[in-house]
Structures are given as C-alpha cells and as structure tokens.
Amino acid sequence: MSDVQSQPVKRVISSALAASAVVAVVTFQSPATASPNPALQTPPASQQQTQSEALDKYYELSEKAEKLNERHLQAQSDLEKKQGELGDAKKRLNNAKQAKQRASANEERYRKDVDRFAGASFASGSQMNKMSALLTGDSAQDFLERSSALDVLAEDRNRALTKLRGAVNSAAAAEQKAQQARNQAAKAKNAAAKLESDIAARKEALDEKIAEVREASGMLNESEQATLEDTGPDVGPVTAPGPAAQTAVDTAMAQIGKPYSWGATGPESFDCSGLTSYAYDAAGISIPRTARDQQASGGTPVSRDQLKPGDLVFSGSPAYHVGIYIGDDQMVHAPTEGEPVKVGPLQDEYSGAVRVA
Fold it and tell me: Which chain regions cross the lipid bilayer (predicted)?
C-alpha cells in the first residue's frame, strides 16, 4: 500500500481510538457523578469534639449545682439545729426562772424563821443560853428542862439557818443558769437569723445554677441524652452483710430509673443524700439528711479496701455526693439533674465511707 493510500486508513484508526477513549472515560466516570459516596456514619472530628465539650460542660455545671444544693441543704439542717438549740435554751431559761422563784420564796420563809429565833434569843435583853437558864432556874430540874428546850430551839434555829443558806445559794445558782440560758438563746437566735439569710442567698445561687444546667441539657444531642438516661449495668442480686444493710441496698436498687430532683427525699424522686436517707429509713435507721453530716456522723468510718454492700460512699471534702456501695467498686446513687437513679462506678473524688449497719 502506498503512502497516499495509507493516510486515510491512519486517520480512521486514530478516530476510532479517540472515540474508544472517550467512551471509556464516560463509562468509568459517570457512576461517580450519578451515585455519590454514602454520607459518613459518624460526625467529623470537630463536631465530635463540640459534642464532647457540651457533655463535659453539662457535667461541670451539674457538679457545681449539686455542691450548691448540698450546701443549701446543710444550711437548712444547721438552721434546724439552731432552732432546736434556741428551743432548749428557752426551756432552760423558763426552768431557771421557776427555780429562782421557788428559791426566793424559800429564802423569804426561812429568813422569817431565822429572824424569829433571833428575836427569841435576845428577848428582854437576855441571851438564850444554858448559863442564863441556870441563873434563872429554881432547881436542877428547871435547869435540865430549860436546857433541853434551849437545845431544841438551837437545833431549829440551826436548821432554819441551813435552809436559809441553801435557799440563798439556790437562788443565786438559778439566776446564773437563767443568765446562761439567756446568752445561749440570744446566740442561737442570732445564728438562726444569719442562717436564714444564708439559705435565701444559697437558694438563689442554686436556682441560677439549675437554670444553667437545664440550658446546657438542651444543647446535648440524642446520643448524649441517652448517655445521661442510662441506668448502668445490670449487676444482679446484691448480698449485704446484715439485714439492715440488705434492706437499705434493696430499697435503693428498687429506685433505679426514678428521676433526680434537687432536695427530694422520695419516693417519686431523689437527690443523692435523699436516696441514702430514704433507703436506711426503710431499714428502720435514721441517718442525717445531708452528705456532709452522713459522712461525719452517719456511721463508723471504713477504709476503701474494707467496703461492703450497704456502706455509704462519699465524694468531695467536705462531702457533696453520696451513694450506697453494692460491690465491685460500684454504687447505686442519684447522680444529678437529668440522670435517673442508677448504678455507676465510685467517683474520682472518692473521699471515704461509713458503715451504718
């Protein structure tokens, strides 16, 4: 074939190859245009970080609110104690006043008796004694009779003097007790007034923080809300070392899923110390209302390696959170706003435990 004849053939082949290339490009590229890759099943890292920060912020605000709630409850508990002290002081003051009135009446009566004996002793200018009885008597028998009468009078006089001294001392002691009771009453009254002011301020701060917590709750996504609403692992039956502790554990576990509510003591909702006091009340044991008081005087302190189901376990110093230990470093507790009563691990700020029963 000549070069002249081969030119058209080359052009045809080139055209065919070019067309094939175009078809190939269209064939392999068009699916990407018609069916894009499926969307990612997890949010981008930046979005995940934002969600985590939102949950962390929620927990941070909740912890602050819980501390404020505990301080508010503690102030209320302190106020009740001061009011009790004031009532006791008023009773002591009233008793002291009555004792003083009785002592004063006795003092007046015994003073009259003493005055009467004193008057008899110096009647007609002669002192009543055995010498005067001897000088004025007509016989030894008169002396004996008069001497005996004088002994009786002397005993009565001494008895009257003793009673008078006792009455005077009783009146002075009653006055001293009355003054102490007045001072204690005034101190308790002033402390109660200050606590009432503190309670109002703490309540206002608590309400503001609760509003922040609820606002932060609205920023959480469904997954984060589900995390809050999770009631923890199913731990099965929990065996406590004694009947009272068993009742408390069983009662607390029966509340799982019930909502948290600031200041609530059940049975429909709880805060942390409300749950523990409710559980032990069911066992017939009264413990203090607040986490701080429960740690201070709710039972016998126990070390972490000696924990048994039923022990109260605390977070913070002073304690602001409390739960009931159920074994394996787990506790049942009422965590905070937005979270129900649940099973969870002992917290990072674990600060001790006490055994109630």
Answer: none
Residue 255: phi, psi to the nearest 5?
Answer: -90, -5
Q: Give the domain range for residue 175.
A: 58-217
204 residue type, one letter: E
Question: Are both 198 and 243 inside the same structural domain?
Answer: no
Residue tagged active-site, from 71, 72, 333, 355:
333
3 catalytically annotated: no
338 to 46, 171, 225: CA distances (angstroms):
26, 62, 8
Residue 333 known to be catalytic: yes
Give a yes or no: residue 51 inside a domain: no
Write down the pLDDT at residue 103.
Answer: 75
pLDDT in tens, 47-90: 344 447 888 888 888 888 888 888 888 888 888 888 888 888 78
List 321, 331, 340, 353, catalytic entry: 321
Q: Does the model's pTM come out above 0.85?
A: no
Residues in contact with 99: Cβ distance below 8 Å, sequence separation at least 6, in sequence order: 170, 173, 174, 177
